[in-house]
């Protein structure tokens, strides 16, 4: 996956750019790694996680969308005059881009999440939703199997 994240450190901004996945990614998990249904499920869980978990360090684009990308990618840092331009490219071209003046980058005091601290209830709700989705995925097949077994057992007993 790729993401552009940052922390506010006093009056400065500390930038973190992650780009990994030129040969594999969440969106393109190979059948050699996982059976197709499992690969699709894992990809869906990662997309869901990015939708609900509080990624307070991820930078937002001009439209307010978080700067993360789950497809094959590579990154580029370009220093142009007094600016840093960060770009993440995917199979279809430019996927993410951010730019900052160099004089705003650095550390000038204690660091805090780029998007600010979340209230404890919001963080707890996000984590609870994520855990519930994992439990549903993990226990869902077991519950269905038990239900089917109970129906077969009941049907078998009713026929006696």
What does this protein structure show overall?
With 160 residues, this protein is of the alpha+beta class. The protein has two domains: 2-117, no CATH class; 119-160. The protein is built from two helices and seven strands. It has helices at residues 36-52, 120-159, and strands at 2-9, 12-19, 68-69, 74-80, 83-90, 93-101, 111-113. The strands form two sheets. Strands 1, 2, 3 and 7 form a four-stranded antiparallel β-sheet that branches. Strand 1 (2-9) and strand 2 (12-19) form a beta hairpin. Helix 1 (36-52) packs antiparallel against helix 2 (120-159). The longest helix is centred in the last third of the chain and has 40 residues, at 120-159. The chain is elongated, with a radius of gyration of 22 Å. The N and C termini lie far apart (57 Å). The model has no long low-confidence stretch (mean pLDDT 81).
**Number of separate structural domains:** 2
Beta content comes to 25-35%
**General shape:** elongated
The parts where pLDDT drops under 50 for at least 5 residues are none
Radius of gyration: 22 Å
Largest sheet: 4 strands, antiparallel
The run of helices and strands is EEHEEEEEH
Distance between the termini: 57 Å
What is the overall number of helices? Answer: 2
Mean pLDDT: 81
Overall SS class:
alpha+beta
The count of strands amounts to: 7
> What proportion of the residues is helical, as a percent range?
25-40%
